Structures
1.
Amino acid sequence: MLIEEMTVKQCHEFLVRMDFGRLGCVHDNQPYVVPIYFAYEPDRLYGFSTLGRKIEWMRSNPRVCVEVDEVIDTKSWNCVIASGRYEELPNASQYVSERQRAYKLLEKRFLWWQTAYAAEQPRHAHQPSLTILYCIHVAEMTGRRAEPDQFDAGRTHQKISG
Amino acid sequence: MLIEEMTVKQCHEFLVRMDFGRLGCVHDNQPYVVPIYFAYEPDRLYGFSTLGRKIEWMRSNPRVCVEVDEVIDTKSWNCVIASGRYEELPNASQYVSERQRAYKLLEKRFLWWQTAYAAEQPRHAHQPSLTILYCIHVAEMTGRRAEPDQFDAGRTHQKISG
C-alpha cells in the first residue's frame, strides 16, 4: 500500500466530489461528532440542519472540524480533514446571495437533503421544524490517500490467477 | 423511511459488529476529527495509534466522542454517537490484563490494524514508530436507525416491476 499526502488541489477535488462527512463541534471542551450532508466549493462547505445540539454548540463556539473519507477497501482510500469556522446563513437581506449560492450547490443533492431532513423529524414531532442553512469557512485542510502498491498488485494477480 | 431511536442493547450490538468510526477530541476548544479502527465490548472501546496530534490532545483532555455509522443507502442506515473518556494503556504491570483484553479483541481485525499502522508511517519515516494502545470508557451513548417504510417499499416494487 502506497500512502501519500494530498495536495490542496486534490483535497478540493475530493470534497467537491463528496457529499457526506462528519462534523465535530465543541462545548465546554466536550467534543460532539455527527454525520452531515454537505456541498463544497473551495474553502466553503455548505450544510443544513434543524435546530439541535449541533447548531446550539456551533452558535456558542464556531470552531469546527469536518472529516470526509472514502474507503474503497483497506488499501485504497481517501481522507480529508478540514478545520474552519461556522457561520449561520439566516433568512435576512444581507445573506440572500450566499443563501442562493448554498441552495444552488445543495440542490444537486436534493434527495439527500430530503432524507437528512426527514431524519430530524422524530425529535421535533410536536413542533414546527426549521431548517437552518450554514457555511463552514475552511481555514486549514489536510488530506491523505492510499492505493495498492506493486506488492499488493502482485498478490491480487496471484489470487486472481489461482 | 422509518427512523427510530436505538435501544442501549441495539447500540451495543451495532458497535460490537463494527470496527471503523470517527473519533473527535479537543484542544483549547478546537475540535479534531479522525477516522479510527476499534474493537468494542459494552462500555469500552479499544483502539491504537502512533503518537501524533490525536494522542497528544487526548492526553491533555481525555473527553472524546466517537461516531460510528453504516450507510446502506439513503433510506437504510445506523448511527451511534458515544461520549467518553480516554485512558492510555501503557506497557506497565498494572495494565497487563487490560492490554491483553484489548489485544484479544483487536486481533480479530488484525489486517485492519496492520493497514492503519502502515498509514501512520510517512509521518514517522525518520524515527522509530511506537504504537499506543488506548481505551475509551463510554459514559453516554445514543443511536438512531432508518429503514424503508411501506411507501418506500411500494416505490421500489413499482420501479422493479415497471
Note: Chain A touches chain B at residues 1, 3-5, 20, 22-26, 29-35, 61, 63-67, 69, 71, 74-75, 79, 81, 83, 111-112, 115, 118-119, 121-122, 144, 146 (CB under 8 Å).
2.
Amino acid sequence: MSGSSFGTLFRITTWGESHGPGIGVVIDGCPAGLPLSEQDIQAFLDRRRPGQSKYTTKRNESDSVEILSGVFEGRTTGTPISLLVRNQDQRSRDYGTIASLFRPGHADYTFDRKYGFRDYRGGGRSSGRETIGRVAAGAVASRLLKELGITILAYAKAIGPFTVEEADYHYAEIKENSLYMPNNTVAEQAGNYISSLMEAKDSCGGIIECIADGLPAGLGDPVFDKLDALLAQAVMSIGAVKGVEIGDGFRVSASAGSENNDSFFSEPNCTGGTAAGTDEGRTIFKKTNHAGGILGGMSDGSRLILRAAVKPTPSIAKTQQTVDIHAENTEITIHGRHDPVIVPRAVVVVESMIAVTLADLLLKNMTSRLDLVKKVYDRP
Amino acid sequence: MSGSSFGTLFRITTWGESHGPGIGVVIDGCPAGLPLSEQDIQAFLDRRRPGQSKYTTKRNESDSVEILSGVFEGRTTGTPISLLVRNQDQRSRDYGTIASLFRPGHADYTFDRKYGFRDYRGGGRSSGRETIGRVAAGAVASRLLKELGITILAYAKAIGPFTVEEADYHYAEIKENSLYMPNNTVAEQAGNYISSLMEAKDSCGGIIECIADGLPAGLGDPVFDKLDALLAQAVMSIGAVKGVEIGDGFRVSASAGSENNDSFFSEPNCTGGTAAGTDEGRTIFKKTNHAGGILGGMSDGSRLILRAAVKPTPSIAKTQQTVDIHAENTEITIHGRHDPVIVPRAVVVVESMIAVTLADLLLKNMTSRLDLVKKVYDRP
Amino acid sequence: MSGSSFGTLFRITTWGESHGPGIGVVIDGCPAGLPLSEQDIQAFLDRRRPGQSKYTTKRNESDSVEILSGVFEGRTTGTPISLLVRNQDQRSRDYGTIASLFRPGHADYTFDRKYGFRDYRGGGRSSGRETIGRVAAGAVASRLLKELGITILAYAKAIGPFTVEEADYHYAEIKENSLYMPNNTVAEQAGNYISSLMEAKDSCGGIIECIADGLPAGLGDPVFDKLDALLAQAVMSIGAVKGVEIGDGFRVSASAGSENNDSFFSEPNCTGGTAAGTDEGRTIFKKTNHAGGILGGMSDGSRLILRAAVKPTPSIAKTQQTVDIHAENTEITIHGRHDPVIVPRAVVVVESMIAVTLADLLLKNMTSRLDLVKKVYDRP
Amino acid sequence: MSGSSFGTLFRITTWGESHGPGIGVVIDGCPAGLPLSEQDIQAFLDRRRPGQSKYTTKRNESDSVEILSGVFEGRTTGTPISLLVRNQDQRSRDYGTIASLFRPGHADYTFDRKYGFRDYRGGGRSSGRETIGRVAAGAVASRLLKELGITILAYAKAIGPFTVEEADYHYAEIKENSLYMPNNTVAEQAGNYISSLMEAKDSCGGIIECIADGLPAGLGDPVFDKLDALLAQAVMSIGAVKGVEIGDGFRVSASAGSENNDSFFSEPNCTGGTAAGTDEGRTIFKKTNHAGGILGGMSDGSRLILRAAVKPTPSIAKTQQTVDIHAENTEITIHGRHDPVIVPRAVVVVESMIAVTLADLLLKNMTSRLDLVKKVYDRP
C-alpha cells in the first residue's frame, strides 16, 4: 500500500497520471446485485469534465468510462469493478518548459524529493485528473447509497470572498449556475470576480459544503475511525483542500456548551427540527444541529454537514519567483489551460469522496451487533 | 478492525473504558533499539492528567503507566509494546442517574443506536479517558521522532473568544500558564472567562495549534494517504474536535493564487524564510508558508502547521432538555467533576496524535525509492 | 503493523513475552451483545496450560485471564476486548546460559539478525507462551460461532509415527487421553513412544487435524482471501507448524480428476453424504468430501477439514552443535522444562486460530450481497 | 476490501473475469526508480500462456500486457503501476450449457451461494485466467528482487504419481521439457501418463516446488505475519492448491528433534552447507536445511524451500453426476478446451506469488531497527 487505496470493505484503489495512457479505479467489495451501468458512472464524470463553462480549463476530453470487470448482465457480481478512462488530449508540449522548474504551490518539489525524480508532464499523479478515479468510484458508491435511501448534495458555498449565507440557500439554483452555488445572484457576482482574476492572470479558491440525508444512526466507529475522522481524511486527501469542518466547525471554539449542545426532543410524530431516529412509536429529534449530524464520531440520524476550504489554483499565468531542479533562482510563467478556480469542478469530487466513505461505513456497521449477525444468517 | 487501530507500520491499538479496570494501548511496529522507559511515557500522561489546575476536573487519578511488553533492558525489542493504566477513581455512583438518559452533545444516543445498549458509566469508551492510550502511544512516537531530530509543539491558540495572534506568540510562556497558551496575558483573560462560565454552570471550547519542525521532505503519499489527510483523520478522531486546517486553512478560500502560492528561493546559505531543503550546496526555502509545510500531500521540509477546533465540554451543570431511553421528554442536570474547557488537557492529545502519524509516515517513506532499499540492504 | 494483528473485522492483536510481566490480546470488532465471561476464556486457556500430564512441561502457571475492557454486565459492548494473563513462574535463571548462544531449531538466530538483539529469556516473543493470546481470542471467537451453530473440533491425528486412520476415529476418546488423540489405543502407543524419547533426551512432532461443522456456504473471498488461504496463514503462523493441507491435501497430487471431484446430489430430505445446502425444498449434498469443505476458496457447507504438520520440539536435552553470538563454534545442552512433544497443547491453538479466522470471515461475508445489506437496514 | 488485494507495502490488487473485457492488476508501493518495461512482464505472462504444448488448453490468446501507469521513461515512478491484459478468445458459446449447472470441483456452487448469482461464462472470477494479474505482479516483484540479488526458481516436482526425487534434480532440464520438471526422463514418463488421461477424458494433479536463494536473514514478522504464514496464504490462494509445506513439511511429524534441528556451524570462509549469514569475519551456516530456510517465521539466510499440492483439473470430459441451479439431479459432460493438468502453467504462478510476498516483506523489514531508520534519514 502506498496510499492509493481508501476504505476497508468498500475499498477503492486509484491509479493513473495526467499524461499517461489513462486513469482508473478498482472498487473491491461492492455488494453483488447492485444495478450498475456505464451511464451511472458517466453522469458523475461529466460533472467534473473540463470545458463546461468559461471558468474551467479548455482542455477538451470526453473522459468516457469503460467498465472492465465486476458487472454482469447489468448488475454487480461482488467481484472487483475495474473502471478505465483513457486520456485523450495530452499535448505534452504544453508542459515541456516546466520539466526543470518547481512550480510554487504544486507538488513538483515534494514529489521530486520523495521519489528522486518525477513525471513532469502536467503534474503526473498529482494532477487534478487523478480525481477521475475518485469520481468514478463515487458514482458507484452513490448508486449503493440510493438503494438505502441516502442522498448527498454538494455545492459551492463560497467562491473567493463571495459567500452564500444559509438563510439565502436555494438548493434548486445549484444546477442553474455554472459555479454550482445555491444562489444565482451570488453566483453571478462570483462569476464577475473570477473574470477579473482571469484578466489579472490570477486565481481564487472557495468553500465547498456537502450535506447528506437519510443516514441511519450509528455509522462510524467510536475511536480512530469516527465518521468525522474518516470524512476528514477523505476530503482533505483531495488536492487543494486545506481545511475540513463538521457542523458549526471552527465556530464552536467561541461558543458556550449551553449553546452548542443540541437538545433532544421526542414527539409521537415528528413535527419540527431534524429527525434523529424513532423509538417505541416516538420520533427523537434535535431542533438544532450544531453537531452536523455526528455525535461521538457516529451519525446521529440528522443531516450530515461538512465544509471544505479549497485553495486558489496554484497554476497562474502571472510571473512567479521559483527555483529550478539545480536549486538556481529563476522565474516561472505558467501557460496552458488552467481553471481560474477549481471549486466548481471539485464539488462532485467532494460529494464522491463522502459517498465512498459512507458506503464503506454502512457495510462495516452491519456487523456491529450480534442480533444483526443472526438476522443475516437466519439464526434465532 | 472496529476502528480502534491507527497507522500502518507504526500501528497503535487502544482499548478501555472510563469505569472499567483500565485503559491501554498496544504499539506494534516500533523499530527495535529505541531507548524507552516508563518515565518517558509518564511525562506525557502527566500533561493530560486531571487535577492540574482549577480549570480541570477534580477527578483524582495518578494515571500511572506500566510497560507490559516490548521493552528489554531499556530498549524496544521490535515486538509489540503493551501499555496499561489502571483506573482508580471510578465512583460509579456519580453516573448512576444518567444511565437512562441521553446527554445532549454526548455519544450516549449514537452509542445506544449502534450497539443496542451501552456502558453508561461515565461515557464508557467515549469518555475523555480514552485519550490515555493515544497519549501513551504519542510519547513513544515522540521518543522515536526525537532520534530523527523532529520536534513537535502544541498549544492553545484560543480559549472561547480569546485568541492569541501569531504576532503575540511567546512560545516560552506556554508552560507558564495552566491553559498552555503562548501568551500569559491572554491566558489570564481566558482564565477569568472560564471562571465566569463555571459560575454560570456552562463551558467553552477553543483552538489548538500544533507545529512540527525538522521534518524531511517527502512524508505522506500523493493520493489518499496524504500527510494532511492522515493528520486530519488523526486529529478529527479526537473527541470534541469539529474542524482541522493546515497552514492558512479556511482563510485560503478568500485568497488569490498569487498570494497563496509560497515562492521558492535558494541561497548558498539560508539567510531567511523557512528552509525547505538543500540541493547542490544551496538551500531551497520559502519566505512564506501559507501551505503549512505540505505540498501535494507531502511534507516540503518547512514548518508543519495544523489547527483544530475544539467544541465546548458537553457536560454542563445547567439544566438541559433531553429524552430518556424510552423516548420520553425530560430534563437533565449533569453533576460530577467535569472540565469547564477541555482544551488545555487536549493539547497533549493533539500533539500525540500528530507524533503517531508522523512516526508512521517516516517508516512508510523509507521504502519510497530503490536507492533507499539498496542502502538498507547494502547492495551496490 | 508489525505482524501482531490478524483478521479484518474480527481483528486480534497479541502482545507479550514469556518472561515479561504478562501476555495478552486485544480483540477489536466483536459484535456487541455476545454473552461472555472470564470462565468462557479460562476454559480454553486451561486446555493449553502446562503441567496437564507427564508429557508436558512442568512449568507451573495458572494462566488466569482478566477481562480489562469491552464487556459490561456480562455482554460484549462492541468495543475492544482486552485480555491479560500475568506471567508467574518466570525463573529467569533457567535461561541465563542460552543468552549468548543460538539454539538450533529456534528463532534465536533470526530474531537477532532482524532486530539487532533479542530478549534472550526463554524465547521472548517467540516462546510458545505467545499462543496464550491466540487461545484467549479463540475462546471469544468460538463463543460467537456457537451462537451461529458452528462447532469446531481439533485433535492429534498423529504423534511421531503413530497415526490414527480415519476408519479408527472415536471422537469421544479425544478427551479421554492426555494426547487428545481420537483413539485411546493409538494414544497409549504414542505415549510409550514419547516416554522413550524423553529418556533419550529427544522430542517428536505430529499432525493436528481440525474439523468444523455448521458453516454456511460462501465464507471466504474468491482470490487472495480464500477461506483456505486465510486458514493456511492462520495455522502456519503457529510456531512449529511446517505444513497445512485441506481435505485430501497432498494426496490430491496423485489423484485423478474423476476421483477427486466431489459430485453433487440432491434429495427432498438429506439421507446421506454431507449436506452442502438446501434449495427449493431439496438438500444439495456431496457423498464424498475430498475438497475438505472448500470450493474455489469458499466454504461449500460441508465439513471443513484441515491438517497441520507440527515439528518436534526444538528444545532437547541432547547435546547439539551450534555457534554463539560471536560466531564461534560451540555445543549446547538445553536444560529446563520443555514438552517432549507440543502437539497435545497445540491442539487448542489450532482450533483457536481456525475459530478466529471463521469469525472474521462470517462478519465479512455479511456484506456480500445487496439483499443482505437491505435486510440489515430494513429497506424494501 | 473483498479479498482482491495482497501485501502491505508492495500491495497488489487484481481484477477481471475470464470472459469480460480484460484482466489486470494494480501494484501500489513499488519503490521509485526500478527499471521496468512491458517486455519484463510479458516474459512472465508467456510462461503461463495457453497453447504452449500438447498438454495445455488450445485456447489461443496472446495475453499482451499494457502498462497504463506508474512507469515514466523506463523507470517506476513510485505511483501505482496499472497493468492490463485484454481478453481475446472469449467464445462465450462454449460455456452456454453450464450456465444452469454446478460443475463438480468448481466454484460454481459456492459462488452462487455467496453472491446470489454468478457470471457463468467460463468461471468468471474463479477462472484460471485470474492468475494473469498475479503473474504480471510477480514479474514486477521479481524485477525488484533481482536488484537485491534474490533469485527464485519453481518447477514441477511431481505430475500425478511421477515424482522427481531430490537426488535426481537437474535444474537445467526444467526449461527443456514442457512440464517444467527438473528431470527430462521423469517428465517423459509423466507426459505419457497425461496422454493416457486425455484419452480417458480425465485429468491429474501434481506438486510444485519453489526455492529462493539470496534472501537476507530476518524477513517475516514473529507472530501472524511469519514468512511461512504469508507464503502459505499466498500459495494456498492459488486455485487448485490444497496443501503447502515448508522444508521437510509433513515429514517432520515422524521426525525426532535431534534429527530435525539444523545445527549451526561457523567457519572463517564458508566451505560447505548452506550459508546463513556472516558475523565478525566468520560465516554462520547450517549443514542441513530441514527448516526450509525459515526459523521462528523469519528467513535464516539459507535456501527457502516450499512445496504446493495441486489438485487435478476439475473440468473433465468424462460424464459426472451433479445438480442444476434448481437443485435437480442431472449429469454434466464438460466440453471445451481444458488443460489435462494445470501444474506446468501454475509453476510461474507459484513463483510469482512467492516473489510478491518476498518483495513486500523486504520492504516491511527495512523498518525493523532504529539504526536502519537513521541510516535512511542520514542521522548519526
Note: Residues 271-276 of chain B have pLDDT under 50 and may be disordered.
3.
Amino acid sequence: MINHVGREIPDQLLARYHKEGYQGMAYRDSRPYTKAAPTVRSNSDPGRSKLVSSLREALERCQLRDGMYFGFHHHFRDGDYIINMVMEEVARMGIRDITICASSMGAAHDPVARLIEEGVVASIQSSGVRGRIGEAISHGKLKRPAIIRSHGGRVRAIEEGDIHLDVAFIGAPTCDEYGNARGVGGKSDCGVLSYSMVDARYADKVVVITDCLVPFPNAPASISMTDVDYVCTVEEIGDPKRIVSNVVRVTKDVRELMMAEYCTKIIAGSPYFKDGFSFQTGGGGAALAVNGMLRPIMEEKGVHIGFAIGGIMQAMCELMDAGLVRKIVDAQVFDSAAIRHIQENPNHIEISTSEYANPMNKGAYVNKLDFVILGALEVDVDYNVNVVTGSDGIVRGAPGGHPDTAAGARCAIIVAPLIRGRIPTICDRVLTVTTPGEAVDVVVTDYGIAINPRRQDLLAAYRDSGLPLRTIEELRDEAYRIVGRPDPVAFEDEVVAMVEARDGTILDVIRKVKTE
Amino acid sequence: MINHVGREIPDQLLARYHKEGYQGMAYRDSRPYTKAAPTVRSNSDPGRSKLVSSLREALERCQLRDGMYFGFHHHFRDGDYIINMVMEEVARMGIRDITICASSMGAAHDPVARLIEEGVVASIQSSGVRGRIGEAISHGKLKRPAIIRSHGGRVRAIEEGDIHLDVAFIGAPTCDEYGNARGVGGKSDCGVLSYSMVDARYADKVVVITDCLVPFPNAPASISMTDVDYVCTVEEIGDPKRIVSNVVRVTKDVRELMMAEYCTKIIAGSPYFKDGFSFQTGGGGAALAVNGMLRPIMEEKGVHIGFAIGGIMQAMCELMDAGLVRKIVDAQVFDSAAIRHIQENPNHIEISTSEYANPMNKGAYVNKLDFVILGALEVDVDYNVNVVTGSDGIVRGAPGGHPDTAAGARCAIIVAPLIRGRIPTICDRVLTVTTPGEAVDVVVTDYGIAINPRRQDLLAAYRDSGLPLRTIEELRDEAYRIVGRPDPVAFEDEVVAMVEARDGTILDVIRKVKTE
C-alpha cells in the first residue's frame, strides 16, 4: 500500500506483523480499545523477601525462556550499564531470540551488536538506535525488523498490548528491599523514572536493579513495590558522569543565534504567546538560546509559562527560579542542575511517559502544548521530518518525543540549518518519514522561515512581521543551489526496520543498505 | 460447604456468583492471575474539551445503561454529596438496576435506601453499610446480595476483574479542565484520593466531579487526566464540616485508659518494638491514647517509627513533628490537622489503596506492618472478629482495613471492652466472621489479655511481663458470667450479603433478619 504520507509499505509486511499503514493523525482518535494486562503472581506473605543475591538469581527466578520480550528504560542515557549487564548474563544462560524493548538505546549499548550476531537478541524495539546497533539493523542482522517508536508510541504499544513485556528491568538510583524505586538519591541519580512506569505496570515480571538500597519505605515511589517481583543490588547501575551532562552549550554560532532569534519572534508574535502558555525546548544550541531570548520579552509583557515539559535542563529550571514558570512536568532530566532542582522544588514534578505523550490515553500533556522547538536531519516539501536515518541510509537517531510534541503542539517549530556539510536539510523527499508533515507548523532555517500552508492562520499572523518568510520549495531550491541535489542512497528490498506512527500504524519502512 | 472458619456457605450461592469458600489466609498467595483492563476511548485531539455543563450531560455522554456498575470513593465520609447527587440524577433518567461499588458508605447515603426500594439500585458492594442502607440490606431489599469487602479486597476485586466498573465517579477537592485531580486545595479538602486510584485505572469511563476548578496542570495529580473522560463542576461536593472531624477524643474513661496501657505494654514488650518499627492505630479512644503512652518510651529508648499508616490523625502527625516518625504513608485522612500536615510535610505521603492493602498485588504496605490496633464488635474463642453485624443481626459496620492489617501485621491487637451494655464482646461464636481468627494475635479487654495460641512466641514473650494474661475461653466465661449468654438472633434462610475475604473467597454470609 501507499500510506498517507506517500510511502510504500509492503502489504506482506503489514499482514505478517498485524499492522496497518499510516492513515493520518486523526485516524485512531476517539477509537475505543481494551487495554492490555499483565499476568502476575500475588504476594500476601509478609515473610517473603524480594531481595535476590545476584542478577543471575533474579533471571532464574523470572523463569526466562527463548523468545521473550524485555523492557528497559534509558534514563541513564550514555551511562547505562543495565542493558549490557542483563543481556550478557542472559547470553551466558544460553537464552536466545530475545526482543529488547527499550525506551531508547545509544552508544552505551554497542556490545548488544555482538549479541545480535550471536542470536541472543532477535529484534530491537526502541526510539533511539545508534552506533553499532544502528549499523547491525541497517545491515539486516536482526531476525525480525526493528520497530522504531516515539516515546508516546512506546507507551501506547505496551498499553494496547502490541508489546507484551515478559520481564521489565528497571535500573533505579534508589530502591528499598520491597521494590519501591525512585529516580533520586544514591550515587547514580537520574532524576525521574518516567519511562519505566509503563513497564512496571504492564510487564509480567519486574526486576529492579539498584546500586543504592535504602530503608523501607522509599516513598514517594516512582515505581511501586506493588508491581515489583525482585530487587537486585549491583556495584554500579551506570556511569554517573555519562548519566547526565553538565555541559550546557551556550551557542556563539551566528547562524544558530539567528535561528534562535527567528524562533523567539515566531513564539512572541503568535496568538498563543500569552500568560500561562506552555513550552518544550530541545537541547540544541538554537533551542537553548530561545530560553534566554524569550525571558526579557516575558518579563516585559508579564507573561509566565504555565507549564514547561520535556527533557528538562538548567535553563528551564532557572526560568522557574526567576518566577517565570509555574510548573515543570518532567519525563526526562538532561543535566545535574535539573536533578537537584526536582528534589528541591515542589513545582518541578515527575510525570509518567503516558502522561507526557501517549496518544491513546484519555489525554496527554502534549495535547496541551502551545510551542515546541524540535530539530531535524531532513525536512521535505511536504513538511515531513526525518530524525532517524543518516544521509548514508543508516539508522542513527531517535524520534523520541518529536512526533508526539509536534502532533500535540499548537505551534510545532522545526529548527535546522539549511545545509549540513554537503547535505541539504530541506529536500524533495526525506529518506525516512519519522514525523508526518501534517504535524509540523513552522520550519526555521538560517536562510528563512517556511510556514506550513495548512496553517493559513499562522501565515496571516506573520505576514507583516518582518520575518524572512519563504515557501518550503524556495528553501529546498536554495539548498540544492548551494550543495546540489544529492545522489539517492542505494537500498536493497529487504525491510530492516519499521517506523511506527504514534498510533501504531506504519509511517515508513527502512530498508537494508546496499554494500558494494 | 463449611469453609475454613467453620461457616456454612450455600453451594448454590457460590456457584451462582462464581465464588469459592474461604480456605485460609495463604490459599491464594503466590497464585498467578491476569489482571483486568478497561475499555477506553482515546483522546489525541488537542481541541477536545472534557468539561461538561452539568452532571446530566456527563451521565448522558457516559451512555448509561440499566445494570451498570458504578464506582465511588468515601474520602468525604459523612459529608459526601456525590453518591446521592449522581444516583438521584440516574433515577431521573429512568436508569435501573445499578450496582453501587463504593469504597464505603455511611449515614450520608440514607437516601439510597429509597432508590433500592424503587429498583434504581439493584445491589451494593462496599466496605461500610450503615444506617438505612444496612437496614434495607438486612431486610432483603436488594435484588442481588450485597458484597462486603475490606479496603484491600475491593482493590483486588477490581484489579482481578471480579468487579468491572462501567463508570467511576470521583469527587475531587480540586481538578483542572483536563481531569488532573487532587485531594487538597479548594473548599472541600479530603487530603488524599487513595480509594479512587484503582477506579480511575480500571473503569471504562471516569467522571471527576469538583467544586473547585483550578488552572492546568493540577500537578502532582492523584488522579491523572490520562484516565479521565469528563470533568463536571458542581456547587458543592460535600459538607466540609462532616468531611473531617476535628474532634480528637482524648479519653478519660478509666477502662479505655487501662486497655491503652495494656496495648502499650504489649507493643513496648514485643520483639518488634525496635527502631524503625511500623504502626497503625485506629481512631478509638484506647487506640488514640496508645500514641501518647508510647511516646515517652520511644523517646527514652531512642526508638522511631519507620512508617505509620492507615487513617491518619493529628496524634500521628504530632509524633512526626516531634521527630519520632520517619514517614507517614496515607490512604485516608481523618481530621483537618492531618490534611494540613500532608500539604506541608514531604514525608507525609499519599499512597493508593492497592499499595496500602491489596493482597493480590506484588506486596502491600500491610505486609510490612509490625503493629496494628483494631476494634471489634465481637471476638469469638477462635479469635474470629465481627465488625459488621450488630447484636440485632443488622448490617451496621465496615471491615475497612481491619482484615488487611490484621493479616499483614506481625502483631495484630484487638482492643475491646469485655461487655458493651448487656452484650458480651468475647463469645463462643461471632455472628459474622469479618476477620478470620488466624490473623488475630492479641485480644486486649478491660478484664485481661488473650494471646492467640497460634502465637506461642508471643505467649512466651509476655509470660513474665506481669500483664493479666487469660485464655480467650476465660474471657468468654467472664463475659457470660456478667451478662449471661445472649439469645441467638433469628434469621431467615435468604442470604442478603456475602462477606468476602481479602482474596475474594467467601468468609461468611449474612442472612435476612426475621421480623415478627
Note: Chain B touches chain A through 66 residues (CB under 8 Å).
4.
Amino acid sequence: MSVVAQLLDAYPKDLGKVDRDKLVACVEACIECAQACTACADADLSESDVAELTKCIRTCLDCADICETTGRVLSRHTAYDANVTRSVLEACATTCRASGDECHRHAPHHAHCRLCEEVCRRCEHACRDLLDSLG
Amino acid sequence: MSVVAQLLDAYPKDLGKVDRDKLVACVEACIECAQACTACADADLSESDVAELTKCIRTCLDCADICETTGRVLSRHTAYDANVTRSVLEACATTCRASGDECHRHAPHHAHCRLCEEVCRRCEHACRDLLDSLG
Amino acid sequence: MSVVAQLLDAYPKDLGKVDRDKLVACVEACIECAQACTACADADLSESDVAELTKCIRTCLDCADICETTGRVLSRHTAYDANVTRSVLEACATTCRASGDECHRHAPHHAHCRLCEEVCRRCEHACRDLLDSLG
Amino acid sequence: MSVVAQLLDAYPKDLGKVDRDKLVACVEACIECAQACTACADADLSESDVAELTKCIRTCLDCADICETTGRVLSRHTAYDANVTRSVLEACATTCRASGDECHRHAPHHAHCRLCEEVCRRCEHACRDLLDSLG
C-alpha cells in the first residue's frame, strides 16, 4: 500500500462517502504529473529546438503548479468543501488536457514529451474519475 | 507603478485584448491573499481556541495554495490558453469565497481573521472582475 | 523504472557526474515527503488533541513547502548551479529533521505521525546522501 | 501599514526578539521576487533570443519556488525553529544571488531582466539583513 493510501487510512475522522481508491489514485496522479511537467519543461529548455517548445514549457509550468495545488487540496479532509474540491479538480483536468495536447505535438521528436503526455492524460482521467464519483 | 505592472509592461509580445489594470490588480490580490492566508492559518494555530479554528486553518491553507498558483498562471502570457485561465480563476474565486466566509465567522474575536476576510473578499472580486472582462 | 527515472533518462544533455540513483531517490523522497507532511498536518487538525499538535502542524507545513521546492529544483538540470542545489538540500535536510523529530514525539499516539516520521527520516537521508555524493 | 505588517501585529503570541521591520521587509521582498521571477521567466520565453536565455529561465524558476517557500516559512511564527529559518534564508539568498547575476547579464537587452535583477538583489539583501539580525 502506498504512503498516500496509508496516510488516508490514518486520517482520524470519517471521510464521508468518498471513493477512497479514486481519491488515492488522483493524489498520486497529481504529484506524479507535477514532477513530470517540471522535468519536461526543463528538458525542453535544453533541446536545440527550444524556440519551438515555448508553448510546451509554459503549459507544463502551469500544469505543474495546478497539479501540486490539487494534490495538496485532495490530501486535506478536515472541513471538506465540495465546491472548492470540484472547482480545483475542474481546473486541474482542464490544464492537464492542455498540457497533454501540447506534449502530444512534440511526442514524435522528444521522449520527455511522450512520457509527459502519458502522465498528463492519466492525471486528467484521474481528476475526471474522482469528479464523477463525487456525484 | 508596482513591480507587477512594470513587468507586465516589459512583456515583449502583444498581450491581446486583456484589461491590463484588472490583470495587475488580480495578480497583486492573489499574492497578497496567499500571504495573508498563510499568516492567518499560523495565527489560528497560536490561539487558545485553536480547536474552534480547524476549519479556518484548512480553508486558509487551500486558499494560500490556490492563490499562489493563480498568481503564477496570471503572470505568464506566453501561449495564453483561455480555458486554463478561466478554470483557475473560477477555482480561486470559489476558494477565496469559502475562506472569506469562514474568516468572517471568527472576525469578531480575532484581528487576523478580520484582516484575512477583507483580503479574501478583495481577491475574490479581483478574480470575478478579471473573469468578466475576459468576455 | 519510475516516471522520475524515465524522465531523467530523457533529459537531452549531459548530466555531468551526478549519481543518478541518488538523484532519483532524492526527488522521489521529496515528493513523497511533501504529500505526507500535507496529510499529517491535516490529520493533526482533525485530532481531538489538536491543541497539543500545533508545533507538529507548523513543522509539517514548512516541510511540505521545502520538500516540494527541493523536488522541483532537483528535477531541473539546465544550467546546473552547485551552490543553489547544495543550499536547498541543506535546508530540506534540516527541515525534514525538525519535522521527523516532532512527529516522533506523537508517533506513539497517532499513526499518521508514525508514518510521517518515517517518510521525513527517509527524505532527510536521501538529501544527505545526495549532498555527500556531490563532493 | 502593509497587510503583511498588519498580520504580523495580529499574531496572538510573543514573537521573541525578532526585528519586526526586517521580518516584514523580507516577507515582502520574497513575495515580490517570486512574482517577478515567474514573470521574467515567461517574458524570456517570448523573446526572439530565447535560446540565449535558457539559464535565465531556469534560475528564475528556482528563485520563484524558493522565494515563495521562504515567504511562507517567514509568515509562520508558531513553534519557531531557528535552524529551519536560517537554512531557508541561506538558500533564498544564494538563489537570489544566482538569479540576480544571470539577469544582470541580460539587463542591457531586456527590461524584464533589468527589473528582475533589482528585485532579486533587494530580496537577497533582505534575507541577509534578517539573517544577521537573528544573531
Note: Chain A touches chain D at residues 41-42, 45-46, 50-51, 54, 57-58, 61 (CB under 8 Å).
